Each structure stands twice: as structure tokens, then as C-alpha cells.
Amino acid sequence: MTKLSVVLGEYAHGKPLLDGDVAIDGYEVNPVEVKPVIGAYRRMIRDLEFDVCELAPTSYLMALQAGVRLTAIPVFLNRRFHHADVQCGTASGIRFPGDLKGKRIGVRAYTVTTGVWVRGILRDEYGLDIDSVTWVVDDDDHIEGRAPSNVERVTDGRSLGEHLRSGDIDAAFSGNAGTGRAGAPRAGWAAPAEQPAGEDGPYPLFPDHDVLAADWFLRTGIYPLHSVIAVRSELVEADPSLPTKLYAAFAESKKRQVAADPEWTALPRLAKQAKQVDGDPIPYGITSNDASLRALVKFSRDQGLLDADFDGEPAALFAAGDYPDA
């Protein structure tokens, strides 16, 4: 039986597969733990270190364009809305999206998927000229060479959170894309507690972010992707049935978790998102994710991360296989 090294983040809906409770016909899963899992993205893209690995969707698209020997299946283990992600400095004077023009905004790296989604929303929904913003980063891109000239690197060793509190930047992304971590995404990176919003702390660009996110979803059908499963291309070439087998195993793993925990108590954020989308908070498949896939490709093109002639048809993004919505 062929062993597959598999790296996933910590998801209850992926655990049955990692634990071996869900089988992949002809294969044995060898789980590899990488914390934070973001550290595995770079190792997979640059060194093809694992057989199967969760990746950030934008990183996968860029790797596909660059000819990296990876392909993917339409399994998206993580989803998030992003209207809450921009936090403004106390003295920044920012009240509306248009106030971000000419400002300095912190983000871990220019190509992080959170950044792509937020810039796309600010550009398409609110008319912000994203090229007028200076994007301040403190980490490398997984695939380098696509960041525009209005990206500036932090050089003093301070975290983005420290830069925001001192007023050296006007706003920043929260969480792993910005102020929720410090250091490079490898073993031992720090995850400091973010300063709570309030009179003395950063405040959200969109105080009513949940309402805006729900409205955006209802109008566009876009439900931002934050995870995709990539496979080394040589394995698919050796066994063209592998993508279908993998997809079926991930779908079964999710099915078992939902049966055991239909209210998503293991991850309350997904329970909340299930209400926002009035349905499955992590739909798998190509058809059910058509609008989201097309939007991510569009935003990535608009921001110079993908070439204009990149084939953005959703079916072209994945290995040939059988992927019923699941």
C-alpha cells in the first residue's frame, strides 16, 4: 500500500481522514504535523516536500501559473468573510474606505489570500485605488517577484501590531495576515494576543462587518476560500484516479464530522458562517464554488498576481476527476 504524507491544519472535519478512520483506496495516510500550517505552504510550493498538503488558494494559483509541479482537488477546508479584517490605528482618522487612500496598511505578505480578498472588496465595492496605498509587509511571499512597487518591507524587527500601536502604519490586517502574529511562519513563531478594540486600541474599518459580509454574499454569491488541497503532480500522473479517491475521502471525512456535530460546535466560527450563508459553511466541489473561484482569479489578476491570459475557468484549476458537490 502506497503511503501518502499529508499536511492539514487543525480541522475536525479533516481528522477522520488523518486518523485513518476514512480510507483512501490503495493508499495509507501518513499525517505530518506542521505548526503553524502556513509554514507548510512554502515548503510544499518551493520544495514539493509533501504528497498532499493544504495550501492558501492564491499561493496555489500562483504556483500553477509558475509551472510548479502541483495540482489540486476542489476541497476547501476553511472559509472566512473579510469585512472585519482591517483594523485602523487610534489616531489614523480613518472612518470610511476612501480614507485609506495614501495610507500605510500592514499585511504579513502582499500575496496572502486575506490580502487579495480584502483588496478586491475595497477596489470593487468601494472604489479604493489600491495602488495609492503603501502595503507594509514583514514576511516573504511564498512565490516572489509579483509584488508591486508600492510594497514596503519592515526592517526594524517590530511586529505589525507594534507598528500599528505606534502610529507608524495607519491600519493593518488582523489575525495571521497581520497583527495576530509576529515572526516568520515557521515553528516557534509568536502569536501574541491582539490588542482589543476600544478607545485605546485599534478599531474596525467596518463596525457593522457582519451585516456587510452577509449582504455581499447575498448579492454576489462569493464566499471567500481560504484553503485548497494540493497534490504532487507526479502522483496524479502515476495514478489518475488519485484525485477522485482523495476527494471522496475528504467528503466522507466531512460527512462523518457533520453527523457527529451538526451544529459545528467544534468550530463556532463555521457555525456562525453557516447561518450567514444559510447552508453548508464549507462546501466542496467546483459547481458550488464557481462564483468564489472566479472572483479569486479576478482579484488576483487585478492585483497583478496572475497574468491576464491565465486560464481562470474553474474546471481548469483542478486535476481531472469526479467532484460532485459535497
TrEMBL record:
Residues 175-200 are annotated as: Disordered. Gene3D superfamilies: Periplasmic binding protein-like II. Residues 182-193 have a biased composition (Low complexity). This is 4,5-dihydroxyphthalate decarboxylase.
